[in-house]
Design goal:
The structure holds 2 protein chains of 2 kinds. Helices cover 0% and strands 62% of the residues of chain A. Chain A is built from no helices and 11 strands. In chain B, 0% of the residues lie in helices and 51% in strands. In chain B, strands 2, 4, 5, 6, 9, 10 and 11 form a 7-stranded mixed β-sheet that branches. In chain B, strands 1-3-8-7 form a 4-stranded antiparallel β-sheet, with no helix packed on it. Chain B is globular. Classes of the chains: A mainly beta, B mainly beta. Chain A binds chain B through residues 1, 31, 33, 35, 40-45, 48, 88, 90, 92-93, 96-105, and chain B through 4, 31, 33, 35, 40-45, 48, 50, 56, 58-59, 90, 92, 94, 96, 100-108.
């Protein structure tokens, strides 16, 4: 059962621009996570936002969570070529706190 | 380096062969997971282990078995490989210490079944 779905599927921007990716989910959650995956590598945890937080920052990353719309967004400011990767949101499964369901990801390409 | 170690990194199997994917973590995490990643499908949970001594099915458990050997190790076994099991397999672990459920992933095993 798909819990998190990212939009857009692919995004291509110039270095220095901001990149925004969105995630929608289906059921009430108490937190949501974002991950990055470089080509051929495992996923790396970026940030976790809880349901009582509307916004959270980590370096050039800004994550928002709107529980009323069941959506989250990841903003990468002043993007760099090294930010080229796939980005996934992950929301808790409806059947267990320890299980997270991942979306299909947004493929971001930052052009130098 | 602390983290999740998966072996092997690459494997080619013939249909019907069996193999075990190994995973070990050295972060004292309670929970461990096996995911598979296919193009356009994202990551799908195969099995997970919330704590040592317990295992549960995920979204796509058919054709797989797991063993939580101890707190560090969680293996995934394919008893009779099928071409549909061609995928990249990721092991992950997590701890709910300090209320964080962030996963640490291994680097993956790329499996081809011919």
């Amino acid at each position: 059962s798909q819990q998190g779905e990212e939009d857009p599927q692919a995004l291509s921007i110039q270095e220095g621009e901001n990149a925004t990716m969105n995630c929608s989910y289906k059921t009430s959650i108490n937190n949501l996570q974002w991950y990055r995956q470089n080509s051929g590598r495992g996923l790396v945890h970026l940030i976790l936002i809880r349901s009582n937080e509307r916004e959270k920052h980590s370096g050039r990353l800004r994550v928002t969570l709107d529980t009323s719309k069941k959506s989250s967004s990841l903003l990468i400011t002043a993007s760099r070529a090294a930010d080229t990767a796939s980005y996934f949101c992950a929301a808790p499964s409806t059947s267990g706190t320890y299980k997270y369901i991942f979306g299909t990801g947004t493929r971001l390409k930052v052009l130098a | 380096n602390a983290g999740v170690t998966q072996t092997p990194k690459f494997q080619v199997l013939k249909t019907g062969q069996s193999m075990t994917l190994q995973c070990a973590q050295d972060m004292n995490h309670n929970s461990m997971y096996w995911y598979r990643q296919d193009p356009g499908m994202g990551l799908r949970l195969i099995y997970y282990s919330a704590s040592e001594g317990t295992t549960d099915k995920g979204e796509v458990p058919n054709g797989y078995n797991v063993s939580r050997l101890n707190k560090r190790e969680f293996s995934l076994r394919l008893e009779s490989a099928a071409p549909s099991q061609t995928s990249v397999y990721f092991c992950a672990s997590s701890s709910k210490d300090r209320g964080s459920y962030g996963y640490t992933f291994g680097s993956g095993t790329r499996l081809t079944v011919v």
